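Thanks for the sequence, V.! I ran GTP-eEF1A C-terminal domain-containing protein right away. Repeating your input here for the record:
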Amino acid sequence: VLIIQVIILNHPGEIHAGYAPVLDCHTAHIAVKFAELQTKIDRRSGKKLEDNPKMIKTGDAAMVHMIPSKPMCVETFTEYPPLGRFAVRDMRQTVAVGVIKEVTKKEAKKK
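Predicted structure:
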């Protein structure tokens, strides 16, 4: 599970929890799901505008809980910026960009 800060650049409709785009992070292209829209924030100041928004649209910035469909190698933006940036793509165009704020790592299974 990743907590991401995302800015919606170009999406024709509204984005709700359950949205399933493709995440491009460094060389990986992985299907993801926006599990929960945590907070809507001001894209300039970073101040919290709304808790648990129902939807976000073009021009909005938000903190989102995101679940990748398969394991991926990422870091938080503060620890290692190149692995902490990403683009969200859908309908053959870039819908949003953002940074990874928090990563919940799964333990490796022992053989």
